[in-house]
Specification:
The protein has 267 residues and is mainly alpha-helical. Helices cover 62% and strands 5% of the residues. It is built from nine helices and four strands. A two-stranded antiparallel ribbon has the order 1-2. Strand 1 and strand 2 form a beta hairpin. The longest helix has 30 residues. It is globular, with a radius of gyration of 19 Å. The model has no long low-confidence stretch (mean pLDDT 90).
């Protein structure tokens, strides 16, 4: 068993002002995505300046934060937030939904594309390889908060989390998700998008791979207590939400290449 590193969730306290690691992880994710986007923007939109790129990153970040929070409220714990609405503002305590954040990003992307003469999928293909930076940083934030831990196990890398009332040795599922949703997904999308791909293919690859990775880790991650297991007692809400992502991703990839082949045959 590995010892859990006792990291104070508060990174810096300045009197009544407290800066939490969880919030800093979001800043790291957004900053890293902006830096990487600035390295790739010339190939995507040569006429864009730094202000245009910053606008895109800003609206996508708003989609992540607002969509992620609202998604968690709607998908995971609606009754509790209705009873205490002020909890919606305390994002440093955790409680963000990837799937809600994805919907927020899609809406922000659609709105930005309408104003800047870019199609929805052109922008999504550009954004998709940037997302794993934020996903990985967010999972480190979950680990520091000692939340979203896994099931009990006797594996040698199991950890006892201070927030676990049972104090059992558990899978560090946050680190599994960091490795898959952050590192592995970034590598896949980065290398896949280095060559020209038909529009929608990169977006489809992101949706498919994320859905597969998340679905797998959910088998060893403890579901949210207020929901438990769904669909006969073995699926989690995260897995239910990932099924349409995997199917939709496969569909986008197949359609993208089929459309490209048809266009080439017509020339």
């Amino acid at each position: 068993m590995l010892p859990y590193p006792q990291i104070d969730p508060v990174a810096l306290a300045l009197g009544p002002l407290k800066i939490h690691w969880y919030g800093l992880m979001y800043l790291i994710g957004i900053g890293g995505a902006w830096w990487l986007a600035s390295r790739r923007v010339n190939a995507f939109a040569p006429t864009w300046n730094k202000e245009k790129l910053s606008d895109l990153v800003f609206w996508v970040a708003m989609g992540v934060i607002l969509g992620g929070r609202l998604g968690y409220v709607l998908f995971y714990d609606l009754a509790a937030y209705i009873a205490e609405p002020v909890r919606m503002l305390r994002i440093w305590e955790g409680g963000m939904s990837f799937h809600g954040g994805l919907i927020g990003v899609m809406l922000a992307t659609w709105w930005f594309g309408k104003r800047n003469n870019k199609s929805f999928f052109e922008l999504m293909d550009f954004i998709a390889p940037l997302v794993p930076i934020g996903l990985g940083a967010g999972r480190i934030g979950n680990f520091i908060n000692a939340e979203l831990w896994g099931k009990a196990t006797d594996l040698p890398w199991a950890m006892v989390f201070p927030t676990d009332p049972q104090q059992l040795a558990r899978h560090p599922s946050q680190l599994y998700q960091f490795a898959l949703e952050g590192v592995a997904l970034f590598a896949i999308l980065w290398f896949y998008s280095r060559k020209p791909r038909p529009t929608m293919a990169v977006s489809g690859m992101f949706a498919m791979c994320y859905g597969i990775f998340r679905f797998i880790v959910e088998f060893v991650r403890v579901p949210d207590a207020q929901l438990g297991y769904l669909a006969g007692g073995w699926l989690t809400m995260g897995q239910v939400l990932c099924v349409p992502m995997v199917l939709g991703g496969l569909g986008l990839i197949a359609y993208a290449y089929k459309r490209q082949a048809a266009q080439e045959a017509a020339q």
